[in-house]
Fold this sequence. Notes:
Layout: H1 20-27, E1 34-38, H2 48-59, E2 64-68, E3 81-84, H3 89-93, E4 98-103, H4 107-116, E5 120-122, H5 129-138, E6 142-144, H6 152-164, H7 166-180, H8 186-199
Parallel strand pairs: 1-2, 1-4, 2-3, 4-5, 5-6
Helix pairs in contact: 2-6, 4-7
Amino acid sequence: MPNVIYIGGFQCKPAKALPHDLETFMQSSGEHGVIIMSLGSFISNLPDEVTAEIAAAFARLPQKVIWRYTGKRPSALGNNTLLIDWMPQNDLLGHPKTKVFIAHGGTNGVQEALYHGVPVVGIPLFFDQYDNLLRLQERGGARIVTLATLDKNTLHTAIQEVINNASYKESMQRLSDLHRDMPIKPLDSALFWIEFVMRHKGAAHLRSESYKLPC
Length: 215
């Protein structure tokens, strides 16, 4: 509609330097790189049997893993996995050592992955997450693993596929180029249109004629 302006990705920005401890961990990954996992702010922990499967899958990987998780420490956690309460997600996604983002598919996380060109292994939980991840998967930038099928084997297989199949990274880089290629930055666009509406006393000319239809 003419009175709707898209400003998606306004929170995305170039990565800043990481805290010393995280940077040291990233560099310790060597040529294999690092996998980032976060299921967002709504999910602080998962059932023990689910976290055990996730931890077991990570322990089989040559990559290092940073997992944002605040629940009980899984017994199968490998030495390659770092559990943290909070992570500078945008800065980690923009780090050259980051290979894959394991995410629930929330809008902010998907847009940050797009911005930095990082392929995704998606574990959708609720709301719009499956739809977001499906759109990304259809464009070659993600692989979905549902909770119903999630175990150490399916997760490990999905991660290996996304890392070892160069098409995922190439697709995300192409999508990143499209995402960034705009005449005005999203936040600048938002500011312009807010001021535009103020200058024109509500910008009634942009309101749809449907508002004038009788009830």
